[in-house]
Amino acid sequence: MHSDLSPHLHTDDCNILINLLKQCHTEHNVKKFFGHCNDMDRAMRACLKDEVRTTSNLVLILKGCLTRCLLLVFSTMFLFLINSELQRGTKANNMLKR
């Protein structure tokens, strides 16, 4: 079984293969049971597999970017808070010296 074949979920290339397979099944409603449409089915499944692989790679890339961005934001916030505390402590020490 394959994923949902709705056109909005797939690339144009895969949609062409999906439509060809559906057309083959419609035109050869008996021969399809004897492997007449198998080549188109294999091509369609390979295309869907490539889509998943491409999407997974993009997700991993975006996840890595997001992780680096969050680390940068949190480390910047942490350094800002430390700097604020140090400045507050310096001001308190100066007031005590007076």
TrEMBL record:
Transmembrane portions of the chain: 58-82
Record key words, sorted: Disulfide bond, Membrane, Mitochondrion, Transmembrane, Transmembrane helix
Stated family: Belongs to the CMC family.
Subcellular location: Mitochondrion
Descriptive protein name: COX assembly mitochondrial protein
InterPro entries: Cyt_c_biogenesis_Cmc1-like
Claim: Mitochondrion is one of the keywords in the record: yes
A single GO cellular-component term on record: mitochondrion
One Pfam short name: Cmc1
